[in-house]
Request: fold
Amino acid sequence: MKFKRQVTDEVSVNLTPLIDVVFLLLIFFMVSTTFTKESHLEIELPEANGESSKAEQKQIEVVINEKGDYSVNDQTLVNNSADTLKSAVEKVSQGNKKLPFIITADAKTPHEYVVRAMDVAGKLGFVQLRITTQRMNE
Reply:
């Protein structure tokens, strides 16, 4: 039997490359980070004296009750056919297709009457179509 002393090399970790990598990462993040700089401007806004002018814009408002009866700008129509509604809208608009067309329907109104009013507005060429609703009181 041979009893020989084994020579072991000293095991060590070289930290120099690790420190180099950490410093490179630190420099990378410092360079790539953007810092926000808040700037405040002092502005003196002008003040206006006088009353605001409230120009009353003409509009077409079609109100539909729960039975499906139409009224155009508070004028009740004789029946609820599309032709009657079309002629009443043409009379009120006087050929101006840029007027806002507002449809207000009761919650219990059948869907058919609302679609009929939308169809009349589309056939006459109105592009500013609005449907209004009311929030229910709880």
Q: What stands out?
A: The first helix runs from residue 16 to 32. Strands lie at 60-64, 70-72, 75-76, 101-105, 129-132.
